[in-house]
Amino acid sequence: MKALLLALVALLALRQTAVADDPPAETTSPEGCQIVKLDIPSACMGRPIRAVVVLPPGYQASPDKSYPVLYALHGLGAPYTVWSDMAPLRAALRTQPMIVASFDGDHAGWYIDATQKPDSKFATFFFDEFMPAIEGRFRSSGVRGVTGFSMGGYGAMGYMLQRPELFASASALSGAFYTVFNSDGKSHPSLEPLLGPIDANRQAYEAIVLAPRLAAWVEQDRKLPPLMLHCGTEDHLVENNRRFRSFLVEQNECIRQRLQPQVADEPDPRQRERQLNRLLETRRIDFTYIESPGAHNWDFWRGVSADLIAWHWKHFQQAQPVPLKQVSP
């Protein structure tokens, strides 16, 4: 009996230690942000997905106020809490209050619906499960943006292209825009568990390339939200980001050429150019491209996080709310 009692005491002590070591579901940051950790059930993947939400200072004290939501995606191999750990980002929420929501996209989930891995359907999860869960639990204003770094930068642009009407803004830090094909024409090795060997599954790989998807929206005369790309000058992906910038410039030139027949009847060349520019202003891809000193690392992403918040905040102020239920795929 004594041995049994000692075993029970030891088990209770072990349980108390384990509970004490578990991180609390809600904490308050030094900047006054409330950080909420939660699990989001995913029917499409058959498992819960860890998530973290940063609520701006004053959120609890203003129960009648709603806030824009910035969905922030982590990079390959990065922890899902990386955005909530950025002190400059949290500090920026004091004067530019928004909700920042992140989830665990796996080590290399690429924010796509995998064809070879049934429990990796992150595009379906994002739109059908994560966004409704976040905006159903927290006070969303119906204005939202999406961002990410590295792999998450690709994911942010991919989600924007899947449902552009849903977002007021989209951005990428050090975006991994090659995604499928490296400079040598080969696929990124971390995609093979998701899509299978490239030679036998080339169509699946080509379906997730960003450029053709973006060009298709332009061809359909669909308006995209404002975009921002920011990459460090010492980043190994900087040339890739420059190519994406050049592609956006080319798309705007295609839009310009498509609009020219609409002003062809104007005889005055200067007036014709003014009319064309007015049309272009409403149709072109509004994008900002920035390079600044930095590499592909935490110091760079953390260092520019406050500027990222400011850029999204500017566009949030100009946007109209779009309820999730009003947006069709």
Brief sketch in words of this structure:
The chain is an alpha/beta fold. Helix content is 40%, strand content 18%.
Give a verbal description of the structure.
The chain has 329 residues and is an alpha/beta fold. It has a single domain, classed as Rossmann fold (3-Layer(aba) Sandwich), CATH 3.40.50.1820. It is 40% helix and 18% strand. The chain has helices at 2-21, 87-92, 122-137, 151-162, 192-195, 202-206, 210-219, 238-259, 269-283, 298-317; strands at 26-28, 34-42, 47-55, 67-73, 99-103, 140-148, 169-173, 227-232, 287-292. A 9-stranded mixed beta sheet has the order 1-2-3-5-4-6-7-8-9, with helices on both faces. A hairpin with a 4-residue loop joins strand 2 (34-42) and strand 3. Helix 4 runs parallel beside helix 7, helix 7 (210-219) runs parallel beside helix 8 (238-259) and helix 8 packs across helix 9 (269-283). It is globular and about 65 Å long. The relative contact order is 0.13.
Note the topology:
Blueprint lengths: L1 H20 L4 E3 L5 E9 L4 E9 L11 E7 L13 H6 L6 E5 L18 H16 L2 E9 L2 H12 L6 E5 L18 H4 L6 H5 L3 H10 L7 E6 L5 H22 L9 H15 L3 E6 L5 H20 L12
Parallel strand pairs: 4-5, 4-6, 6-7, 7-8, 8-9
Antiparallel strand pairs: 1-2, 2-3, 3-5
Helix pairs in contact: 4-7, 7-8, 8-9
